[in-house]
Amino acid sequence: MAPNEGYDAAVARWRKDPDAYWLEAARGLDWSRAPSRAFDGSMGLFGRWFPDGVLNTCHNALDRHVAAGRGAQTAIIYDSPVTGTIRRFSYAEMLDRVSRLAGALAARGVAKGDRVLLYMPMVPEAAIAMLACARLGAIHSVVFGGFAAAEVAARIDDATPKAIISASCGIEPGRIVAYKPLLDAAIGMAAHKPDFCFILQREAQRCDLVAGRDVDYAEAEAAGAPHPCVDVAATDPLYILYTSGTTGKPKGIVRDHGGHAVVLHASMRMIYGLGAGDVFWTASDVGWVVGHSYIVYAPLLAGCTSVLFEGKPVGTPDAGTFWRVCAEHGVRVLFTAPTAIRAIRKEDPEGALIRKYDLSKLEALYLAGERCDPPTAIWSAEKLGVPVVDHWWQTETGWPITAGFRGFGLFEPRPGSGGKPTPGYDLRALDAEGHEVPRGTQGALVLKLPLPPGCAPTLWNAEQRYREAYLSTFPGYYDTSDAGMVDEEGFAWVMGRTDDIINVAGHRLSTGAIEEVLAAHPDVAECAVVGMADALKGQAPLGLVVLKAGARREEAELARELVALVRERIGPVAAFKEARVVARLPKTRSGKILRGTIRKIADGERYSVPPTIDDPLILEEIAGVLAG
Ligand code: COA
Ligand code: AMP
Predict the structure, then answer these.
(1) Does ligand 1 have an atom closer than 6 angstroms to the CB of 575?
(2) Which of 193, 245, 558, 574 has the least CB density, counted as fewest CB within 10 Å?
(3) Which residues contact 102 (CB under 8 A, 6 or more apart)?
(4) In the predicted model, is pLDDT for residue 214 greater than 90?
(5) pLDDT of the residue at 512
(6) CATH 3.40.50.2020 applies to domain 7-409+420-484
(7) Diameter of the chain measured on Cα atoms
(8) Atom of ligand 2 nearest to the CA of 508
């Protein structure tokens, strides 16, 4: 971003000479070997960024700031209402801890290119472990704590980690989640076994360690000899993050070092308007891409102070927690999911708790993870008195596709829009034949290739799946699988997914994965899962099941079993609470289940009877069951 540059000027500068634009952005970082060119279109699926650059992401996130004399500045504020803890970690302290943990991992054989799986609650050690891997050039893969053992096992088998870093427990409001038994079960189920595990013992609930495999995290870190940064190619993988695909098998999104560091660093000033020393709080979880990018990497690359919050928007202890954290730590920009705001609004509709705190430092609220409904955006702006900025992105892109840009001067508020494309993204809306639709018309939202730096260059062990999932529908474009439009003024309006992915409380879930679990129940012949509208979580999964011939089951009891099965196989995060028994499922004559029509019936929307349906009466039957 050039000084005083506006949005249109930045877009024009990028379009005129993308290589010069990105090489300029790359100069914001330290490189062991600076890239001589920005892009090589002959590499990978659609080209690779900074092909001859060499750097280390951890050096740029920590060492660089300490070397510049800012070691005493706070890097991370750990605020944990669930344990009653607030702790500040300076850049110097983070550097010391990260380099020791890197040393402890290296002493046990972890080296550049090895995978390390992290299954951690929201504790500072999660960020320390991510950065320690980055320091070694090892590839981390963080698994969200709300996933069950089978999901962890699937990730262990795909990533084949040399080591696992985990904790004895996580803390959810009103219950302790024992991570260690889940981890032990996952390792038991997986064909691949890690060489060793570091286990963080937490006071809330300690756990037994497996002799010969488990090592106490704190002891290992304390005894580790500080390890220097290992040079990696900009195109080497920094992490794998698994996300839901349309089948039960998750996709391992690969992020590379160089492009990721360049765009995240640049995004802090351009999108959020923040620089070194500013306090930024992303209320999400390190298990999601939002947490990777905006709790850990981007704020530290930019020298900010990042708040790492272990709690919920409500219930820890009340709907004023977010405002207490903002006031207490002088947060300038807060980033969260609309669901969190809806949860707060439900408990404090008048915003009385907002007025209890001094929010004079708060300058903006950013929202992402799901479409922000206009009432939520309007309520937040009114009650907080700051601009509310919705921005749209995906695990695959790693940073916002569209946004409002504090660095360029914010656009006028347009509740319901995700803003304009970030320079670097060439956003288009296409019809089913792949032709661009006129501005203001709905279409498939796609990005003209190449994708900008930072976006996933491939899927772990699954290059062909990347090609099929993202590049094959519209040749020359990356298919976001979101539908929406770009209006006359260039604002994007993202309406929802075109595939079988649903968004529950900002968490991305595959209906296919839930269907696989329901179908495994001995009494279920076939099933369909759809995302029905939910006032708090945006969407909630609804399962319709058809019983096997001869199975006589009481519906409520079967539903309880199915709910328990999804919780056991996928985890509590699936938030699967409702299953109904139906006699038949509506299908096209070719046998495709009409999930879109089921969803409309569940939401009480008007639906048209699809001409290809084999038996229209089924729709009335389903409406009757759901109404009953
Ligand atoms: N470890 C273990 N379990 C977890 C977990 C974790 N890290 N995170 C969530 N869970 C559990 C919850 O305890 C809950 O279990 P339950 O069924 O026993 O109650 C279940 O998973 C569903 O969680 P969630 O969908 O988050 O619902 P909730 O009722 O606990 O909380 C909100 C509702 C709105 C407060 C919560 O969803 C929230 O804070 N959302 C913000 C979303 C967000 O940050 N998204 C990230 C993308 S930006
Ligand atoms: P995830 O990969 O978990 O970040 O989920 C990405 C998906 O969430 C996107 O493809 C969208 O469907 C949805 N999403 C995320 N942010 C937004 C937003 N600001 N507006 C609309 N949809 C969003």
Answers:
(1) yes
(2) 193
(3) 58, 132, 133, 135, 136, 224, 226, 227
(4) yes
(5) 92
(6) no
(7) 74
(8) 3
315 alpha carbon, closest ligand: 1
The closest alpha carbon to 256, from 399, 127, 447, 123, belongs to 399
Give, for ligand 2, the residue of 459, 503, 537 to mutate: max count of ligand atoms closer than 8 Å to Cβ. 503
* From the candidate CATH numbers 3.30.365.10, 2.60.40.10, 3.40.50.2300, 3.30.300.30, the one assigned to the domain spanning 505-627: 3.30.300.30
Task: Say whether pLDDT at 3 is over 80.
Answer: no
Q: What is the pTM of this model?
A: 0.96
pLDDT for the residue 589: 87
Closest CA relative to residue 198, chosen from 176, 218, 181? 218
pLDDT at res. 279: 98
The predicted-structure confidence for 242-280, as pLDDT tens digits, reads as follows 998 877 788 999 999 999 999 999 999 999 999 999 999
- How far lies 47's CA from each of 113, 216, 235, 421, 462, in Å? 21, 42, 11, 21, 17
Q: Whose CA is nearest to atom 10 of ligand 2?
A: 394
For ligand 2, is residue 392 a contact (CB within 6 Å)? Answer: yes
Strands 74-80, 305-309: pairing is parallel
Q: What is the dihedral of CA 216, 219, 220, 223, to 10 degrees?
A: -170
The span from the CA of 619 to the CA of 628, in Å, is: 14
Q: Give the β-pairing of 279-282 and 305-309.
A: parallel
